[in-house]
Design a protein that fits this description.
This protein is of the alpha+beta class. The chain is 38% helix and 26% strand. The chain has helices at residues 6-10, 54-57, 81-95, 116-128, 139-146, 187-202, 208-218, 250-274, 277-286, 300-308, 321-331, 333-336; strands at 14-18, 22-27, 31-37, 40-43, 49-52, 67-70, 73-74, 77-78, 106-110, 134-138, 157-162, 167-173, 176-183, 204-205, 230-237, 243-249, 288-291, 312-314. The strands form five sheets. The protein has a five-stranded mixed beta sheet with strand order 3-2-1-9-10, sandwiched between helices. Strands 13-12-11-17-18 form a five-stranded mixed beta sheet, with helices on both faces. Strand 17, helix 10 and strand 18 (312-314) form a beta-alpha-beta unit. The two termini are 38 Å apart. Bound molecules: adenosine-5'-diphosphate and magnesium ion.
């Protein structure tokens, strides 16, 4: 071997799930090398970046007023161009190994309804932070491939990807998307409902990290074995402004979370109503596959199975399936070329 090995000379091609809540990166030939919150902390006085990803998350709730922590993406679209650029540049630097002569190709999943302006923003951002060619793939397709859903089958398949800001519903048939819809009921709305419940029932406020932990530990959509659990929480009492200890019980919390979950089920039922009978028959038989971090809520499959009257299964590792799908497409571009967005 000469001075440089071949992969070093050509750089590593990158597949990326640039989510509003989490960013994941797959390096060609290596697999998933980065999984961090899509967060950036910056100093509003001198405009300098203070921390990115997990390091920014560690600062949540403990920063002085001149440090702001934001999510530069909303609903899978770049909302803050400058901050998104700084965040992605940091992530690329983190996964880049050694010296490369050529810039990498970057394959990214985007919401299926992304506008031409949204696509342009992503392409320009990636080129500015060191990508060469940018390839886009609709997130439902990447998620389905990563969840091992056979989207080329000659019977219809349904995927429901519950992310942070949106839930994407997609029906695939013969390798194309026969139906898609976007709902606003997703992980963030469940967390907001939990926060509202604590405020109204306990006059209490908690930080973002505690709310996520509480949702994952005792949040539920159905009477699972966890339903008798309680969880100790240190909250801020809004009357006194001081911390107090609370025991949050799973059962009343489940009641409180019902409304957005019913809305989610209603959205899925509307999608089912809109499907042509021929596709609906297949979906009613095979059921639907849930993915995305929001699908991790305890008992959600059971609740949706009941409310939508069809089998609902959750894929393995629902926080990873989108980047996995992007990675599979990157590693086998010839086989999957037809799925890339023009
Ligand atoms: N164990 C869990 N229980 C309930 N919700 C969860 C759990 N883990 C993650 N989530 C939720 O999943 C969402 C993030 O999922 P993800 O698929 O990464 O979103 P995005 O694609 O928007 O970045 C968040 O709303 C988070 O609260
Ligand atoms: Mg996602």
């Amino acid at each position: 071997m000469g001075l440089f090995s071949l992969p070093a000379l050509f750089g590593k091609h990158i597949a990326m799930d640039l989510g509003s809540a989490n960013t994941l990166i797959h390096l060609r030939g290596e697999g998933i090398v980065l999984n961090e919150p899509s967060l950036i902390a910056w100093n509003i006085w001198d405009k300098k970046v203070v921390a990115v990803g997990s390091e920014a998350q560690a600062l949540l709730g403990r920063t002085p007023q001149h440090i702001e922590i934001i999510r530069p993406l909303k609903g899978g679209i770049i909302a803050d161009f400058t901050m998104a650029k700084a965040m992605i540049r940091h992530f690329f630097k983190k996964v880049k190994k050694g010296y490369a002569l050529l810039k990498p190709t970057v394959l990214i999943s985007t919401p299926s309804d992304i506008s031409a302006i949204g696509k342009k923003a992503i392409r320009e951002t990636i080129v500015k932070v060191g990508g060469s060619r940018v390839q886009l793939i609709a997130e439902p397709i990447a998620s389905a491939i990563g969840a091992e859903l056979d989207i080329r089958a000659n019977h219809a398949r349904m995927l429901v990807n519950i992310g942070s800001g949106t839930t994407e519903i997609a029906v695939f048939f013969h390798g194309s998307t026969a139906y898609s819809d976007l709902l606003k009921q997703a992980g963030d709305e469940i967390t907001e409902t939990l926060n509202r419940y604590l405020l109204e029932e306990h006059n209490a406020k908690i930080g973002e990290v505690t709310a996520e932990k509480c949702k994952a530990t005792i949040g539920s959509a159905w009477d699972s074995p966890k339903i008798d659990m309680t969880m100790p929480l240190t909250v801020k009492d809004l009357d006194t402004g001081t911390p107090k200890e609370l025991q949050i019980a799973a059962q009343p919390l489940r009641q409180a979370l019902q409304e957005p979950l019913h809305e989610l089920a209603r959205g899925i039922n509307t999608a089912l109503d809109n499907l042509p009978e021929t596709l609906l028959v297949d979906i009613r038989n095979d059921g639907l596959l849930l993915c995305g971090g929001g699908s991790l809520l305890h008992g959600l499959e059971t609740m949706l199975s009941q409310e939508c009257q069809l089998p609902c299964l959750r894929c393995n590792d629902p926080l990873l399936n989108t980047v996995r799908g992007c990675g599979i497409v990157l590693e086998n571009t010839k086989q999957y070329r037809s799925f890339l967005l023009p």
